[in-house]
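User: I'll paste a sequence; please echo it back and then give the predicted structure.

Assistant: Echoing your sequence first, then the prediction.
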Amino acid sequence: MLKNSLRDFIDCAAERNFISDNDVKKLTGEILVEGIASRLEVESLLALDRMIEAEESWGTALTKLVVNFVVWKRAPHGVVSNDDALWLATVLEVSGPSRNAMNIAYAILDEAGYVDVALLDFIMRGRQQARLSLVAA
């Protein structure tokens, strides 16, 4: 279940089709001060990311929030299990691997002591798609 304040944030950003630096400050400084609390919150923020335009600070904040949830709030800490890696890779790959999705995957790879191969597969598919896009352009 989403907190009302997070739901309101998502609805407002979707309605405006934009996330400003002030929105990011409100999200990280008021709404998600304790960080992301559930997979549903991750999924909702990633869905929002695919729908809207945003200031650069949004990608940085989203990456930090997701990394902290996946790497440090899920047990065992510092490990991305097969279940979490499969779930996250699936969510990140919706609509293709975006820049923020790839940044999140790389940041998790950098921060975690162990990352299941499912997330590494997502990274490799994203890199391959990027290379193919450059060749086609």
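Helices lie at 4-16, 21-31, 39-51, 56-73, 82-93, 99-111, 117-136. The longest strand covers residues 18-19.
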